[in-house]
Amino acid sequence: FAMRSSKLKFDILGRKVKGDKGNVLKAREAGYIKRKDTLLKEHQASGKSNAFVDRRFGEDDASMTPEERAIGRLARTRLRQIKRGSGFNLNDDDDDGQGYDDEEPITLTHGGKPIDEREEERRSAHAIARGRRGMRDDDSDDDMAMDAATTGALHFGGGEDDDGFEPTLKRGDHDTPEENGDPNRRKTKKEVMDELIDKSKYHKAERARQRERDEDLLDKLDDEFKEISGAGLFRAALSKGVGHLKPDGWERDDYDKLARELALESRGQATDRIRTQEEVDAAEAATLETAERARLKRMNASDEDDDDDEEDEDEEEDADDDEEDNDDEEAKEAEEAGEEKEELDFSGDKSDSDLWSDSEEQYEEGEPKPAKAKDPKAKAPVPELPFTFPMPETPHDLEKIVGHLSVEDTTVALERIRKCHAPTLKEDNRKKMQSFLGLLLQRFEMLSGQSPLPVDYLDVLAVNIAAVANIVPFFAVTSARARLEKMAARLRQRLRDGETGWPPARTILLISLFADIFPTTDKQHPVSTPAALYLGNVLAHCAVRSTREAVTAVVVAGLAARYSAPAGRIFPEAITLL
């Protein structure tokens, strides 16, 4: 139970964690010893100003009596004196036979006086001291030792023993200079610290009193200011424009205008995050599918829907009977009543899906309406354009989808095909888009050979070809290079056969399409570079033999300028030909 361990979350081989195991009893014992050595000694020494260690002989031994301490101290003193003076005792008998008995003895001096005389003076001083203390001559040598007062007077006082001599006063731990009668006495550390603490407390209290006085003065000033402002004295000064209180109209107007703008400024509203391309394509495809299902439902209505439509038709017939003479008033009344229904447009100007409604289908299948005046030039409505299309796999499939459509409908149909079959929706849609790009290029070449040129349809195809090329760029480059290689092969073959070799209209339009799709400013491009080389060969090797060929040469030279001008290049062949 004395051992304590901490469980680790992970065990790692070879790792030593400090403190994972410990002995409670040993830790408690170590803490007790540490507090005893530190806190206990600090507690014992608290409140004391100074301390000294008494190293005198016998003071640390409580078993010795005062007489034994005195005898031991005397013996140690004599021994110390013998050790110190033996090295300078020159008058002792020599055992080694080096003494000089015939000569006068050598006398040691100090300060011009023999050592013996100084010894006599010392003894006389001891006698004086004994006389003052009332000691007898037969006292022991230990009693001949000078006390602290005599030692201070003779040794440190210059050796003079005046009658006016006053020894240094002894003071206790808590004595003050006034109590000891000496105001010039050096203060102890405790006294200095006590005085410093008292001064600090005094200054702190003085600052607190000053702060209270300042607060009282501020409160008084606030009360007086309230009285003055309540009387309206400042308002009168501002209205008269006295001194620096004169208002600045321009600054006030600017500030008011800015404050009003900040107050009335509309706050920004949080918006949804920007959707990725995959999410955008999925949302567009879902929208088109939903619209297509709704269109098919309106076109192929069930019997239940027909019953509901018959009820709506009866209501419509009643309204027509009431307003039979004026169709415009009928439309106005229907709008005011909030009826949501649509009428068939016989003019044929609109072909949108909104022209087809359930009531019109019921009119074709159910009972006829009352006879009305009809436009003799009315024609059958144009079929509604589907919202979703299958991906065409052959040129015939593409012809079935867009062959009978107008330019606007062709644009919408091709755009819906791209959205319904975006590569981000399914993995195999990328291959379908590659096949779709090939079909668009074939249709572009086919329409380019017609006369007159369907320029509007070619523009629609060019826009969609560029959009699909951005989706499948690698396949677009491959298809363009294959067509350029065929063009170069046909040019070489015609030149061998002795023909002029000028390209037909479809070739020129296709190269112009490549200039719109691919960059022409690159130093080297897999499509733009072969196309520029083909144009240079045409301008350099094809001969002009007729007016038509001259016009073709000018057109090709202009096409060469489209490839060279953006990059800052020139065609020497075009300059030579022109």
UniProtKB/TrEMBL annotation:
<dbReference type="GO" id="GO:0030490">
    <property type="term" value="P:maturation of SSU-rRNA"/>
</dbReference>
<comment type="similarity">
    <text>Belongs to the NOP14 family.</text>
</comment>
<comment type="function">
    <text>Involved in nucleolar processing of pre-18S ribosomal RNA. Has a role in the nuclear export of 40S pre-ribosomal subunit to the cytoplasm.</text>
</comment>
<dbReference type="Pfam" id="PF04147">
    <property type="entry name" value="Nop14"/>
</dbReference>
<feature type="compositionally biased region" description="Basic and acidic residues">
    <location>
        <begin position="366"/>
        <end position="378"/>
    </location>
</feature>
<keyword id="KW-0539">Nucleus</keyword>
<feature type="compositionally biased region" description="Basic and acidic residues">
    <location>
        <begin position="267"/>
        <end position="278"/>
    </location>
</feature>
<feature type="compositionally biased region" description="Acidic residues">
    <location>
        <begin position="355"/>
        <end position="365"/>
    </location>
</feature>
<feature type="region of interest" description="Disordered">
    <location>
        <begin position="267"/>
        <end position="389"/>
    </location>
</feature>
<feature type="compositionally biased region" description="Basic and acidic residues">
    <location>
        <begin position="113"/>
        <end position="124"/>
    </location>
</feature>
<feature type="region of interest" description="Disordered">
    <location>
        <begin position="84"/>
        <end position="218"/>
    </location>
</feature>
<feature type="compositionally biased region" description="Acidic residues">
    <location>
        <begin position="302"/>
        <end position="346"/>
    </location>
</feature>
<dbReference type="GO" id="GO:0030692">
    <property type="term" value="C:Noc4p-Nop14p complex"/>
</dbReference>
<keyword id="KW-0698">rRNA processing</keyword>
<protein>
    <recommendedName>
        <fullName>Nop14-like protein</fullName>
    </recommendedName>
</protein>
<feature type="compositionally biased region" description="Acidic residues">
    <location>
        <begin position="91"/>
        <end position="105"/>
    </location>
</feature>
<feature type="compositionally biased region" description="Basic and acidic residues">
    <location>
        <begin position="168"/>
        <end position="218"/>
    </location>
</feature>
<keyword id="KW-0690">Ribosome biogenesis</keyword>
<dbReference type="GO" id="GO:0032040">
    <property type="term" value="C:small-subunit processome"/>
</dbReference>
<dbReference type="InterPro" id="IPR007276">
    <property type="entry name" value="Nop14"/>
</dbReference>
